[in-house]
């Protein structure tokens, strides 16, 4: 019984940890999150990204934008030297396959800003999402030698079925643990077998 209780507590802690991670945002190995602000990484340098929907809420968003509609994205360049580098921004619909600089992005593109220098170190733009779904934000910088580096972060617009998969799986796991616990705790003493007649 003690082991079963440990299993149930472990399942609850995993679901709680996942809920916290979802609340904090973030996406994928090339992005990190802090609160509701995403960061794309270029080595040890980062660009902070925050999303807003001022027409609907005062909240800030990162990987989960709650609904379609007008959304403002704010970018903050941490390294001052990046202010002299052309930066390209592109949002694509997630193709569910790896994306690189060589990928043909035109057919997937939702929004695109050509390479441009942002001398002030911060910039923002507005885009209206018309459909729920999973998206990837691609941030590409061009080094002085012409070499391009791309970093990406994933985000979701509106609720989709995949957003609920971890919660559904967690609920099934807990229900299974409770059932097993109930079944083992309610087993009464076995009745003695009736003597066989000769």
Explained architecture:
By secondary structure, this protein is α+β, with helices and mostly antiparallel strands. The protein has a domain at 27-160: Immunoglobulin-like. The chain contains 2 helices and 11 strands, in the order H-E-E-E-E-E-E-E-E-E-E-E-H. The strands form 2 sheets. Strands 1, 2, 3, 4, 6 and 9 form a 6-stranded antiparallel sheet that branches. A hairpin with a 2-residue loop joins strand 2 (37-42) and strand 3. Helix 1 (2-24) packs antiparallel against helix 2 (161-185).
**Regions with little confidence, pLDDT below 50 for 5+ residues:** 14-31
H/I helix tally: 2
Straight-line distance between termini? 41 Å
Secondary-structure element sequence? Answer: HEEEEEEEEEEEH
Report on the biggest sheet: 6 strands, antiparallel
- Beta-strand percent range: 35-45%
Give the mean pLDDT.
78
What's the β-strand tally?
11
* CATH architect. name of one domain: Sandwich
Tell me the Rg in angstroms: 25 Å
Please identify the structural class as seen in this structure. Answer: alpha+beta
**CATH superfamily of one domain, please?**
Macroglobulin (MG2) domain
CATH topology of one domain: Immunoglobulin-like
Helix content: 10-25%
CATH class of one domain: Mainly Beta
